[in-house]
User: Which sequence fits this backbone?
């Protein structure tokens, strides 16, 4: 069964994020706290959303999908960007990953979103094979770019900001 995450799910979501980070060989990079996740998912203005996959017999959470809305200037519509998809190893092969993706695809269709996108590590052959099997296509002509740490700070220092540009009201419009 797939259901929206509840505030009580934050500890298990946090735990599965850590499990995912370990699988992706980046455990030290997974620094988000349960409090940060709670605020992002259930604060006054949620910026991300999550679905929980439950074991059909026990009801125990066995996977999650964490996503947010993006926007295409070409289509003029929102879309869904899947930040994380994880199913615990003991539950893999039970259809939970596909059910999570299907639920997100349904959100796209119901809301008129034209794109559902995510990234996958180039060495994660089992996931790549799974995504191809459901009809997902790689966007090989695009590469992800990222600024973090000192490079992010250095570029920010070069900003010529007029009054109010960095205010929350301006950024949220």
Assistant:
């Amino acid at each position: 069964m797939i259901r929206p995450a509840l505030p009580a799910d934050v500890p298990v979501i946090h735990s599965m994020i850590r499990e995912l980070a370990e699988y992706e060989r980046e455990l030290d990079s997974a620094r988000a706290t349960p409090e940060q996740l709670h605020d992002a998912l259930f604060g006054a203005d949620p910026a991300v959303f999550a679905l929980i996959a439950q074991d059909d017999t026990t009801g125990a959470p066995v996977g999650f999908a964490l996503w947010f809305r993006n926007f295409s200037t070409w289509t003029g519509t929102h879309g869904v960007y899947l930040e994380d998809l994880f199913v615990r190893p003991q539950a893999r092969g039970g259809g939970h990953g596909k059910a999570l993706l299907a639920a997100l695809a349904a959100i796209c269709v119901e809301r008129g979103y034209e794109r559902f996108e995510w990234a996958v590590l180039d060495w994660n052959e089992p996931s790549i094979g799974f995504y191809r099997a459901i009809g997902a296509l790689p966007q090989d002509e695009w590469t992800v770019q990222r600024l973090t740490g000192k490079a992010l700070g250095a570029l920010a220092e070069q900003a010529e900001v007029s009054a109010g540009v960095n205010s929350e009201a301006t950024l949220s419009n």
